[in-house]
Amino acid sequence: MANKSLASRKQTVIAIFLATGIIFLGRLFYLQIIDDSYELSANNNVLRYVTQYPARGLIYDRNGKLLVYNEAVYDLMVLPRQVKDIDTLEFCRLLEITPEGFVQRMKKARDYSRFKPSLFEKQISKETYGYLEEKMYRFPGFFVQPRTLRKYPEPMGAHLLGYVGEVNQSIIDKDPYYKSGDYIGISGIEKSYEEDLRGKKGIKIRMVDVHNREVGSFQNGLYDTLAVMGKDLYLTIDAELQQYGELLMQGKMGSVVAIEPSSGEILAFLSSPTYDPNLLVGRVRGKNFSELSKDPVKPLLNRAMMGQYPPGSTFKMVNDLVGMQEGVLNTHTHYTCQGPGSSPIRCTHHHQSPLDVYVAIQQSCNPFHWQVYRSILNNPRRKNVKENYTAWRNHIMSMGFGHKLGTDMQFELSGNIPSAEKFDAIYGKGRWNAMTVRSLSIGQGEILVTPLQLANSAAVMANRGYYIVPHVVKSMGTDKHGENKFSKVTSTIDPAYFEIAVEGMRQVATMGTAKWYQIEDITMCGKTGTAENPHGEDHSLFMAFAPADNPVIAIAVIVENSGFGSTWALPVASLMIEKYIKREVARKDIEERMINGKLY
Amino acid sequence: MVRERNNVFNNIDWTLVIIYLVLVLMGWLNIYAAVYNEDHKSIFDLSQSYGKQMLWIITSLFIGLVILLTDARFFSTFAYLIYGITILSLIAVLLVGSEVSGSKSWFEIGGFRLQPAEFAKFATNLAIARFFSGQHINVKDFKTRIIPLILLGIPGLLILLQNDTGSALVYSSFILVLYRMGMSGNLLLAGALVVLIALSTLMVGHIYVSGLLVIMAGLLFAFMKRNRRNIINLLALLALGIGFTFSVEYVVENFLEEHQKTRINVLLGKELDLKGAGYNVNQSKIAIGSGGFLGKGYLNGTQTKYNFVPEQSTDFIFCTVGEEWGFVGSLVIIVLFLYFLTRIVNLAERQRSDFSRIYGYGVAAILFFHFMINIGMTIGLVPVIGIPLPFFSYGGSSLWAFTILLFIFIKQDANRNALL
User: Where does the sequence pass through the membrane (chain B) (predicted)?
Assistant: First the structure.
């Protein structure tokens, strides 16, 4: 009987077996059918998304000359786990590193991961790669990853072109396109056209094993995408003119901006002192960047758009135009000038008196322009000085001053044409008048313009009343004509008045302050300026366009701390115009004097 | 009394043999899938583990055949001798064995490795069966209680000394055999309770568990007849329980190695160590979990093939099943094992000879323990203890040993009608 009861214990034992089986099946049901997270984890284990980097778009000048291209460099990568039995000394000799450096790098890589590749040596040159490639089989665990670097065949246009650098964390956080180690345009065209230049990354999905070794492509590459190369850019820049400008401006601080008035295309855009753009590429970038940023002459500063200067006398015709439009000035208006004895603003020249608007521009007469300005502000047409001032300011701004022009480059500054409210704040409401703000009549005081704005105002003069927003990119990719997105801005001044101002500018070049720098067969219309600079020597300014009747170039030149407009800025502008129109400069003596002039 | 000795093949239980063959074959195919690699495509490639496994399978079949042709009485007669030789080999391996991944449990003869611990299982089973089939057995007798413990304890301790905890724990599975032999069912319950208390202590700490025990004792007391002796027993049990909770913590803190502690903590969900102790189980769960309902298809598993799961052809072979054959495949394997175990128990129960019956229960107990621990650990229900899945996992020693273990039983069963 006892045996029988013991035999029934079989049921208990079988029940234990079945219970275990049921628990297992329940657990498997949960793992395999209910919970999806394991499926995802499995993919994360096996799939590696390898980014295919597109080459950055190339950059050409308006004549198809290559300005920026890409050069292949190679990052030497290491997989510490696979490194064994290598001739370290030989390896160090090839790479030109010390054995200590080798040990240090290996330690860093190993600390990061023994199974994942890490960077061993950044951007080794083609030459070193050439040597290395032949001997690579002797160095297991090392492999190279190609990358591209920007290269500049002619070292020019650094501020215009800008530079490319590695993305930082804040960019990565903001834009999911970028991953650590990616490159991005940081300044200049590289920045403003980043999205066109960068192209489109591709992705290859690889399967890897637990040691991160590739074991094949995922679904035979069904989900892989190809990288699309960035679009090529064709600039409006004339490389030859740009280079010539940089040559003329060497040793000087300042800026030259030249624009084709009919299209708003920027022909030359330079800031001096400049630097070789190749300096900010590759391994040497960090060191050079810190050296350049410490340089007291600020070679990294883009003075053409970010330098702000009082326009001085170059502002006088602008003032006259407002006077004519507001009905307080016409060709018959005469004002007196007592020369240096004038009050409240002295004249620096000796000329006839009383004088009309043509002579006033030609001779850059301060008292004349002060009186025009006073008439504008005291115009009985409007209620008070404040309203007249606001009307004046609106006219000025319609000619491209006091606001950003909206170019296709980054970091443009707006200059400054102070508002009436600003003066209210400074002097008190109703407690300022023409006398208080008189320096504005001759382009001094609170007024600030950028070289780009000044060049643009020359284009407005050339066009007799309008400008096309200045820009540096003519076309993109294969689409060589699809241009016109830059709008035409018409000033609030009647074009007829521009003829008068332009005539004054022509006389500047033929009889006035610029007559010594006339160009054979080309009539230039211009205006010199000498801007008082509270920080030191006066700035020398010149703005002009040429030829007078069918302008092809409008230009502004600013040479900092160099005194009269006619000594430095004018000859530089004149040579630039000659170079652009004739492609050849005949006045070698002036050219030589400009090239050799060292002002800092 | 008909003697059916003319042909041994007429009497053997073909169901067991066929399931055995199916399991071995499936194991082989899954080992091939687990380490599949394009360079060595042939499943017969002897340089690869699946090629070697084929050799183990062939030799195992030969061993099985030899056992079937041996006189059934041979095993009961020489049970103690076989046990003794095995014990000697366990001692020898401690002295001259070579160490493989932390366990000093291998004899190395040429390029050939043998693990005596695997063989000790059937040898101990033989000895236990022999002891209980003796005529003087009385379960109430102290000697009857202590001798099996010694028979189990010697190999268990020796294997523990080899640092092979998993194989040593196998001997605890004999509790099922002892239960069948008349050991009180309360002991089985008590065993379950001990495991439960130990686990909950590790999870929430001894204070709470002790508190819970006090409450339970109080409730029991309230519903109990007011019997003084019972109260004393109850109090004694309570003291024992509380003492046990303390000792669990003490043992874990002071005697377990760091990695063993982490394994337990990971299992209990107290620690998430996906790079260290939790790595194996996590990868194993990923592999099985990613299989879904129908699996990724044969040879299409990525997790095991690309080595994300460690030991994927030995202890973690079940991952390949889960990944490539999905829930359906896992279910087939589990049901197959359950049917196999149940069949062994049923066959054991029909034995006329005590020796055969007890031996049969031992076979079921050992296989069940391996099944429970091995699959349990791959799906994260049991701490990682490295023991193979019978017939399935790669390895010569274990396949041979399980084959011997099983075929001795098949032989005994085939001989069940013989005169005692």
Answer: 12-33, 53-70, 77-97, 142-161, 173-199, 205-224, 231-252, 325-346, 358-385, 391-410
Residue the block writes with tokens 């820049």: A237
Q: What is the per-residue pLDDT for B419?
A: 60
Hey, is A48 helix, strand or coil? strand
Q: Does B293 touch chain A (CB under 8 A)?
A: yes
**For the whole model, what pTM was predicted?**
0.64
Identify from A32, A116, A205 which residue to disrupt to test chain B contact, counting B C-beta atoms within 10 A and taking the largest count: A32
Of B123, B113, B138, nearest in space to B88 by CA: B123
Cβ A208–B306 below 8 Å, yes or no?
yes
Q: How many CB atoms lie within 10 A of CB A18?
A: 13
Rounded to a whole number of angstroms, the distance from the CA of B118 to the nearest CA of chain A is 22
* pLDDT given for residue A1 in this prediction: 36
Cα(A96)–Cα(A91) distance, integer angstroms = 8
Q: Using an 8 Å Cβ cutoff, are B177 and B128 in contact?
A: yes
Asked whether the beta carbons of A524 and A515 are under 8 A apart, the reply is no
Identify the segments of chain A with pLDDT beneath 50. 1-2
Q: Which residues of A touch B180 (CB under 8 A)?
A: 6, 9-10, 13
What was the pLDDT predicted at A251?
Answer: 92
Distance (Å, whole) CA A201 – CA A225: 8
- Predicted local distance difference test score (pLDDT) of residue A482: 54
Give the domains, in start order, of chain A with CATH numbers.
49-78+93-235 (3.90.1310.10), 302-566+592-596 (3.40.710.10)
Among all residues of chain A, which has the CA nearest to that of B344? A14
The two structure tokens encoding residue A336: 């007196």
Minimal CA–CA distance to A452: which of A493, A417, A393, A412?
Answer: A412
C-alpha to C-alpha distance for A225 and A231, rounded to whole angstroms: 18
DSSP state of A54: P
SS3 for A21? helix
A-B C-beta contacts closer than 8 Å: 122
Phi-psi region of A232 (alpha: psi -120 to 50; beta: other; left: phi over 0): beta
Identify the pLDDT of residue B199: 76
| Interface membership of B334 toward A (CB under 8 Å) | yes
Query: What span, in angstroms and rounded, lies between the C-alpha atoms of A20 and B365?
Result: 13
Q: Tell me which H or E stretch contains A556.
A: strand A553-559
Mutate which of B180, B186, B286, B339 to disrupt the A interface (most A C-beta within 10 Å)?
Answer: B286
End-to-end CA distance of chain B: 11
- pLDDT of B223: 74
CA angle B354, B414, B336 (to 5 degrees): 95
Cβ distance of A42 and B322 shorter than 8 Å:
no
Q: Which residues 5-64 of A are in CB contact (within 8 Å) with B?
A: 6-7, 9-10, 12-14, 16-18, 20-21, 23-25, 27-29, 31-33, 35, 37-39, 41-43, 45-46
Cβ atoms of A195 and A217 within 8 Å: the answer is: no
Flag residues of chain B having pLDDT under 50: 1-3
